[in-house]
Specification:
Layout: H1 2-12, H2 15-48, H3 51-64, H4 69-127, H5 133-139, H6 141-172, H7 176-201, H8 204-211, H9 215-228, H10 230-254, H11 260-282, E1 287-290, E2 293-295, E3 309-311
Antiparallel strand pairs: 1-2, 2-3
Helix pairs in contact: 1-11, 2-4, 2-11, 3-4, 4-6, 4-8, 4-11, 6-7, 7-10, 8-9, 8-11, 10-11
Length: about 300
Amino acid sequence: MAFKNSLKLLASNFSVVWKHLVYVLITTLISVGLVLAFANPVIEVLRESGWIGTASGLIKTLYTEPIAIFDVVKELALTFFGVIYASFPSIWFSVIGLVLCGYFVPTFLAGIGFYNVTSVVQKQMTSLLCVGYTQNMISTLKSSTKYSLMKIAIKIPFDLVKLFLIVSFFRLSTSFFTNLIFLSLLTLGLILVSGLEITSIAAFAPCMVDIGGNPFRSFSKSIVPVFKKFMKTYSNAIVITLCSVLVNMLLGVFTVFSSLLVTIPASAVFVAIFGNVVYLSSNQKRYYLSKSIIVNPSNDENKLDTKHQTGV
């Protein structure tokens, strides 16, 4: 029921998606601008080494041999990191700047936006209180900053596991047949890890919004009730991951990626709503599914939420 209720709440709170889209566009421009500020020395090294010319040639082969896409990506990655490693003493400052601005800055800004969405949606769910997106972001900026820094620390191990899976895929893939096999395993692994990540921090932001204070205390308090219903939450998290990937991929391809302007922020809002549903349900707190329906979670795990939805 967590997935179904989250979907209904996404539809009724879709106005938040448009506001979050503006935030995503602004923070993306900031991140891209910072990346470009540090990218010049690295681009120059890649051009002098001939990597850019080689990359252009390899990419052109995909038009005549699309089946060679795995080999092309593998070759580009290996030669890229080889050039960076050989030139690192002279471009270390730019490389570190790219890592900070390409990973930590956007992740930090995304965490602030996610906390704000969680806060806005939770107020709507628990008391039908509509608050302004920008106004709420300003008032919760101190808490969202603490949350985002803590979330980065939690995300890094998951992202390293994902990176390990991707690197292992390219190392083990030696033919088209093995490419297909390991690509399936890679996809499965990434989905399972992403589901575990969502499960681990599902109630973190909602708990911190609810009780405030120290992010360490909020995280430790949020994770206990969630893991008591781990398989249920994890299953829903996997379904959410699958749906997000499929919707973004399919709509992105069929609309020449223009629909990603909606589906990406919608996916973030969906996960934030799911976190609120998980937190409120696991702590036996009532919430509004709509203006006329209240969900009253039961202490009995075997009873579904639908049995406790009553009109008011």
